[in-house]
Amino acid sequence: MVDEHTRYPEFRLRLPNGGPLARGRHTDEMGTNGARKFVVGPGQPVRPEAVPSFATRVASAHRLREELIQQQRIVPSETWPTWLETADTITFNSSSEAAAVLTGRSANGWVDWKTEDNRPLGDFMPGVWMGSNRPWLIRGSNVTGLDLVQRLWLPEGRVSLAASRLRQGLRQGTSKDDLRTFVQEDYESTTTYGQKQQLVEELHAFLSRMRPGDTVCTISGGQLYVGEITGEAEQTESEDRRSNLRRPVDWQPTGYPYDDLPEELQQKLSIQHDVVDLSAVQALVEGLGLSDEELAEEAEAIESDPSGEIPALVARRELELPDPTDELTAELLVHETEWLREVRDLLADERQLVLYGPPGTGKTYLALKLAEFLGGGPEQVKLIQFHPAYAYEDFVEGFRPKEDPKTKEVAFRITAGPLRELAALAGSEGNRHIPHFLIIDEINRANLAKVFGELYFLLEYRNKSVQLPYSGDDFALPPNLFVIGTMNTADRSIALVDTAMRRRFAFVELSPRTEPTSGLLRRWLTKEDKDSEPADLLDALNSRIDDADFRIGPSYLMKKGVYREGGLERTWRTKILPLLEEHHYGEGVDIEKRYGLAALRQSLVRESPA
Fold first, then answer.
1. Gyration radius from the chain CA atoms
2. Can you give the pTM of this predicted structure?
3. What is the pLDDT of residues 194-253, one digit of tens each?
């Protein structure tokens, strides 16, 4: 039999804030919940105070620490003034429990205990996936009708997977190829191909990718429960085949209301698989239940770069859209800054908005400029234009011909559309607190229900995710992704937009009859030091157009060519009158007599005071 003193080297734990080194040893003896025990001898240093969150984060380790101090097994140190030390040999249930008691904070013993040459304890365990610790979601509230979370996991300190038909003899570290073979043979006639594939992924994660020190989350009764995996996986021959693959877990004593969780965390928790990697929201999980002050105090109790930001604090930072300035108001020639603030507030609340109005009202220009200001630059803004042939495959994802860069062969491959590309950029590390904008020009020219697909659901339920039909990926809209659409009411009336679209977007009108559009041309002419006649003519023209959706916007007359010799007449003849001819087609209206420059100028002369 191998002596565990020989099998495992001495492990050391650096106490925080430049504190002394504690020493201990790992054993093969199993603790009460299946973790391997860890022994700390007498005379080892102990941090004198615990962080405030210790009692709630690691309640069992906090109780044990208090008991050891009361029993005088942890006493004031004579070797290290102001510190405590162990008075005798103490056997802990796990390496994490030992590290937590000695440091007075939540600790991951598999990472914190290191050899003299700085190798973590986890490196010495067979079948353990290498790399950093990560959080996982494992579902157990409805396993063939039973809530195992309340019945088994929380009371017994476990987490489990059902593998009712899987052969005995599985070990931690089993390869995915072996698992694929076992599942194919053992579940041959009882599950579909897709179910077998998913089962292989979940079994491999549970047996081989999870490691002691990883965080595990589960949902039951509207609460999220969080714990730490404290030992290796085991397969039991339990009569209850709902839980015959198990791992020991040290659960936190209380759960967190699901409805109060951050939106990004809810998105990941909504993924409909029994095992889900939550690495993308690890910082949010680590910050659950802790105030900003408690997180800062925990960080001070850990040996880390003092100049670095605390990930959990960064992750919970509120996304804010900047306040529009008077300078922006002047640049956009908007009548007042308060109008821009209202649009900003609508975007902050709804996260999707449509600017609608007749041609020439500056919808696309305003959308771009406002998005660039709110996002901090043009690199955070992507513009696409819908048209009748635009499809879901163009927008979200679909099969598209692609050339292999090596073989030069062309084949159909799943290709991400602009929505997925921008969502990936917005959701990437370092970008999550930077607003990103997707501008959809002429949004009403496509078949919206066909183009948007399941995005209709995600626009309304930003805290959910869906499985995409082509790639099968789980997809959600990042909280920092905003959508601005523009809609030409002369092309297709806003009345034709379906209720689903109206419910998901805020609608802001840009019309020649109201500000900021009605006085835009006059403000531009004043800024450019030009005569006000074009503004007077435009006002007179629009007063003769009964249908507000066909009134003419000011941008037609805000171009340099208009103010060259003959430019106004040319623009009126080739740009404006053809729109009105189309509007009155078949009505027998004399367009020139009603809307021509000569007629409008004559009316202005009659209306001017003597």
1. 33
2. 0.85
3. 889 999 999 999 998 998 889 999 999 999 999 999 888 888 875 566 778 889 998 998
Q: Which of 170, 176, 148, 168 is nearest to 160 (CA)?
A: 148
Amino acid occupying residue 33: N
The DSSP output letter for 563 is G
Specify which residues 134 forms β-bridges with: none
Amino acid at 229: I
Distance from the Cα of residue 551 to its chain's centroid: 42
Within 243-296, strands assigned E span 245-251, 256-257, 275-277
Distances (CA, A) of 391 to 394, 417, 449: 5, 10, 10
Between the CA atoms of 111, 112, 118 and 120, what dihedral angle is there, to the nearest 10 degrees? Answer: -30
DSSP code at position 374: H
CA distance 586 to 131: 74
| Spatial distance between the Cα atoms of 503 and 492, rounded to a whole number of angstroms | 19
Would you state the structure tokens that stand for residue 320, as one six-digit string? 């804010």
Strands 410-416 and 481-488: unpaired
Q: Are 54 and 66 in contact (CB under 8 A)?
A: no
Residue 53: φ, ψ to 5°: -80, -5
Enumerate residues 6+ apart whose C-beta is below 8 A from 302. 16, 105
Cα separation, 111 vs 500, whole angstroms: 50
Asked whether the beta carbons of 74 and 68 are under 8 A apart, the reply is yes
For tokens 């919970």, the residue is 316
Determine contact, residues 14/42, Cβ cutoff 8 Å.
no
Residue 606: partners with Cβ closer than 8 Å, 6 or more residues away: none
Among residues 221, 289, 280, 305, which one has the least CA distance to residue 253?
A: 289
CB count in 10 Å sphere of residue 141? 17
Predicted confidence (pLDDT) per residue in 139-196, tens digit: 998 887 889 999 999 999 999 998 878 888 887 878 889 899 999 998 888 888 888 9
Task: List the structure tokens of 454.
Answer: 């399941």
Vertex 512: Cα angle to 336 and 520 (nearest 5) = 45
Give burial (CB, 10 Å; 0-12/13-18/19+) of 440.
buried
